[in-house]
Amino acid sequence: MIFLLIVFALSLVLQIFLSRQQNRWLGLILPGLSFLWSLVMVFNAAALPGASLSSTIGMIVLVLLLGNISTLLLLAIYAGCRSGIQKHREMERMKAQDLE
Questions:
Q1: Which of 21, 45, 53, 59 is 20 to 30 Å from the Cα of 97, by its Cα?
Q2: Tens of pLDDT, residues 10-47
Q3: What is residue 1's three-state secondary structure?
Q4: From CA 6, how far away is CA 12, in angstroms rounded?
Q5: Average pLDDT, whole number, for the chain?
Q6: At what angle do helices 29-46 and 69-99 cross, to 10 degrees?
């Protein structure tokens, strides 16, 4: 349990680090991997034998919702970091215009 918490905390720190980089695509790596992992979970849930159609659909929806909580969290971190970078750039532009 402690190991999982450490891995989760390190992934959040890595996401913050990647989101603050100049290249905006770096911050989308972890959310993309998280989404792909949720798709793998969906395909595993859909492949269960002996389940009825309604229970399979319900399971797929549940797995999609629960599997993408981490994706949404990582995207929220990305959006927060990128908006801070945008504000910083705007302030730099305003300072440059004031000097002219």
A1: 21
A2: 999 999 999 999 898 999 999 999 999 999 999 888 78
A3: coil
A4: 10
A5: 90
A6: 160
